[in-house]
Amino acid sequence: MSIDEAAPPRTATKPMAFDSGEFAAGAARAVALHLALFLILSGLASLVMGMFHDGPSIEVFLSALSGSIGLVLFVGVYAVPISLIATVLGILPALLLGQVMVRVRTFRTHVLVWCAFGVVFSGAVSLAVSHLLFRDQPSLMSAFLVTGFLSGSAAIPLAWARTASIALRADQGITTRPWFRRRRRTTSAVR
């Protein structure tokens, strides 16, 4: 083993241990996925609310679509700083939960535990944000509550699963392809 290549933190007694780099990668994946899902769900929620409020027609659809684009930009301005603050607040509970779970071998159990953590943490953050920012606007509060809750609840376990699978595959010497990269075609692959 070279100096550049560190030993994996996982052992026989701690099969799901992790190092600080893996933890930071998981947190970054969770924030990025949450923001992407939150923006998509907010746009869809705006579109659906506009269609149900005024009735389905092409004019209403186009009006709701332009309104949802504005809402996505508005949500992006609020969601990024709030998500970063929530990440800072959620680091310690996530780290403690991860440390408690290092001896649990089954991947399925970890996914279920991180799903529960995502539901509880996202619910708490969504309620706190909606109470602080939208106390006197119940219709806005419910839309932001639902989209924030759903995106956070999905992002946390998905980010954990991706980070854990990359780390476990790396332990076996398998390199995982990065997502969203275009594959280059070689002349030998074309033939």
TrEMBL record:
Keywords in alphabetical order: Membrane, Transmembrane, Transmembrane helix
Keyword Membrane: yes
Membrane found in the keyword field: yes
TM region(s), chain numbering: 23-48, 84-104, 111-134, 140-160
Protein name: Uncharacterized protein
